[in-house]
Design brief:
The complex is a heterodimer of chains A (429) and B (252). Helix content of chain A is 71%, strand content 2%. Chain A has 429 residues and is an all-alpha fold. In chain A, the strands form two sheets. Chain A has a two-stranded antiparallel sheet with strand order 1-2. Chain B is built from nine helices and ten strands. In chain B, strand 7, helix 6 and strand 8 form a beta-alpha-beta unit. In chain B, helix 3 crosses helix 4, helix 3 packs parallel to helix 5 and helix 5 runs parallel beside helix 6. Chain B starts with a strand and ends in an 8-residue tail after the last helix. The chains are: A mainly alpha (429), B alpha/beta (252). The interface between A and B is medium-sized, with 32 and 38 residues.
């Protein structure tokens, strides 16, 4: 069994396929997705996803690459977005000749300018000091957004019209699909640029400073300057995400730069896994899907999302990407197949337990919050799951499911662990 | 030629406590100089003063004739002084190869470049490979540094320390916590990689000190009580008394 990593083996050829293939696959994937999911709502979800990916990747330049925990990164995305909406307004009112597709770059530059200014003092220290400053700045800008009405539009925000710009190759971006491809192209460009950045001297040193700032200083680099560079780059790409948001939704409000948005990008990034470049991408996809799909079926989706986040942090601190990459070794050993059955077996009691828990929460929520007299609930809005949330039977059923599921999980856990250990051991051993 | 490192009346107080109490020391170019002394004598503090981690209370430090007191660690490093640490100080989450490469970047002129892809730089790569060969970690190049054995991590730290091509190398207890065979391998490594450079080493293992050093300074309670050739230091009654509290012969 060869132990050489694929990137190592591939590096010897003229073209590094191991590096190139995932990107090509991603481009093809982005190109064909709207052919499969052509509805307007699907396009909206995918656009939202793409924007979240850019934002989360930018955020991970700080958190994962640079070891800087920010609680206020929505500021740079929001400011970039607001700036772009204003530009759209100028295009509409004063006939400025700025084609819509290049708007995000201005969003990026605006994010960059603010990062240059704020980074000057916030990146002096990493750790708690940086986190607190980011929180303070986040709160400050969010407060400003309600005070400086001229720029932020107060509570109703600022809106624009993306179709007013000069057409590009005949596209005026009135169609959702045009916006999709515009966003997809920007996604690829930004992701490539951020990936490239991580492989430059400053990008490498960002990792070094994250691991050990003192050592980094003794190889000739100012830890503070390295942090500053990462911070500015991150602000730039967050601004691009803001520009894309502006093009997609044509409105920005205080919500786009408040602490809730800052918190959710942290959640997205951590959920996906901060130690991997693809982590934030996976996180953004899962998060957006859960957000959009779950919110169709339940009013308390945020509760589930929070639960998922807590479970991830507790049991899989390397995130979903970490969970995926854990399977690299079994794959190398050719034993991935041996895990299918134990996983499937574990899935049954696991699903029963989770559904029981969710059912319990839904019923409790309905019993407590539904209007007087409205006692019949539809679980997850399904017609065939109608019952009275005040009767005892569903409660008993859900508790029984939880208990039975938990019992089953407990019984199967040692078997799963044994199978996992076995799958990670070389055959000869 | 100016001394590689020159300390003039260096003092350091932490609050009311005087840790370094007027140290004068000149280490000429190319010398291997060891600083020894009992625990709490201020050896590591002296190191941290020279390398810019702490600020001086008074006095002056010169590197190759140029004043470096008051400069930041990275500025001192760029002027040709590099150090290792008492507690292993490497980039734990990066591979062995990347650790060494990070040590090379500044000196090879990459500075804060965010447009050069590091993986395609042939010279950089070759130099990093060369250093890995030198510390016998070439076959561990793709391993995350945090999982190396203790001795391997110490060797890696030496490689990072010398990578930048500094003319003055300062090592803080390079063999602490090592077995006898690991220690002798480390001493050989240090001797090879510091060939032609100025070496300042703080060390507890007197065997290593007498094996490696051209000259020895003895630091006791923040003052240098003796400085000279190993034999002279070993023979000195003051050293014996201060260092061991007795007048027994220092073990070789």
């Amino acid at each position: 069994m060869s132990t050489v990593a694929p990137s190592e083996a591939a590096r010897k050829g003229p073209v590094n396929w191991a590096l190139l293939l995932p990107w090509l696959a991603a481009i093809v994937f982005l190109a064909v997705m709207p052919l499969i999911f052509a509805s307007n709502s699907a396009l909206t979800i995918m656009n939202q996803m793409a924007i979240t990916i850019v934002f989360a990747l930018a955020y991970n330049m700080l958190l994962g690459q640079g070891g800087m925990l920010s609680f206020g990164h929505a500021v740079y995305m929001g400011l970039g977005g607001f700036f772009c909406v204003h530009l759209m307004g100028y295009v509409e009112n004063y006939e400025w000749q700025i084609p819509t597709p290049i708007l995000p770059i201005f969003g990026g530059l605006f994010g960059l300018i603010f990062a240059i200014v704020i980074g000057l003092f916030s990146t002096r220290r990493a750790g708690t000091v940086f986190a607190m400053i980011s929180l303070g700045v986040g709160e400050l800008v969010a407060a400003c957004s309600l005070i400086v009405v001229a720029f932020f539009g107060g509570e109703e925000g600022v809106s624009g019209d993306r179709t007013m710009g000069p057409t590009v190759f005949g596209f005026d971006f009135a169609q959702k699909i045009e916006v999709y491809y515009l966003t997809a192209i920007w996604l690829v460009i930004s992701a490539l640029a951020m990936f490239f950045f991580s492989r430059t001297p400053v990008g490498r040193l960002a990792n070094a400073v994250r691991d050990n700032p003192e050592r980094a200083e003794f190889v000739g680099y100012s830890a503070r300057f390295v942090r500053y560079y990462s911070f500015c780059a991150s602000g730039f790409f967050a601004g691009i995400a803001g520009g894309l948001f502006a093009i997609n939704f044509e409105i920005l409000t205080e919500e786009n730069l408040n602490l809730v948005t800052s918190g959710s990008v942290l959640l997205v990034t951590f959920l996906g896994g901060i130690g991997f470049f693809v982590g934030p991408i996976i996180g953004a996809i899962v998060f957006t899907l859960l957000q959009t799909v779950m919110s169709l079926y339940t009013d308390i989706w945020q509760l589930y999302l929070g639960g998922l986040f807590v479970l991830t942090v507790m049991f899989f601190p390397r995130g979903l990407a970490g969970l995926l990459f854990m399977h690299w070794r079994p794959h190398q050993l050719g034993k991935l197949g041996t895990l299918v059955v134990p996983y499937a077996r574990m899935f049954v009691p696991g699903a029963v337990m989770i559904l029981g828990f969710a059912g319990f929460l839904e019923t409790a929520f309905h019993a407590r919050h539904a209007a007087q007299g409205n006692e019949v609930m539809k679980l997850f809005k399904f017609e065939f799951l109608q019952y009275d949330s005040h009767s005892a039977l569903p409660w008993i059923l859900f508790v029984a499911m939880m208990v039975a599921g938990a019992y089953g999980c407990r019984r199967l856990a040692p078997g799963l662990k044994a199978a996992w250990d076995e799958a990670n051991t070389a055959r000869s051993a | 030629m100016p001394a590689a490192i020159e300390l003039k009346g260096v003092t350091k107080n932490f609050g009311m406590a005087e840790i370094i109490r007027g140290v004068d020391l000149a280490i000429p170019q190319g010398e291997r100089h060891a600083i020894i002394g009992p625990n709490g004598a201020g050896k590591s503090t002296l190191f941290n003063l020279v390398t810019g981690k702490y600020e001086l209370t008074s006095g002056e430090i010169r590197l190759n004739g140029e004043t470096i007191s008051g400069l930041q660690p990275f500025e001192i490093n760029r002027r040709g002084l590099s150090r290792s640490f008492q507690i292993t100080n490497i980039f734990h989450n990066m591979t062995v190869f990347e650790n060494v490469r990070c040590g090379l970047l500044w000196s090879m002129g990459y500075k804060y470049s965010f447009w050069t892809p590091v993986n395609t730089q042939k010279k950089l790569r070759a130099r990093a490979e060369e250093l890995l060969e030198q510390i016998n970690l070439a076959d561990r190049r793709n391993v995350v540094a945090g999982v190396l054995t203790y001795a391997e991590q110490r060797a890696l730290e030496i490689a990072i320390t010398i990578a930048g091509g500094a003319s003055v190398i300062m090592l803080d207890e390079p063999t602490a916590g090592m077995s006898r065979s690991e220690t002798s391998a480390m001493v050989d490594l240090i001797r090879t990689v510091t060939e032609g450079k100025t070496l300042v080493v703080v060390e507890h293992d007197l065997g290593v000190v007498f094996d490696l050093a051209d000259k020895i300074s003895v630091l006791v309670y923040g003052e240098i009580i003796e400085s000279g050739l190993p034999d002279a230091v070993r023979a000195s009654d003051r050293v014996q008394e201060a260092y061991l509290g007795t007048t027994h012969e220092i073990e070789h």
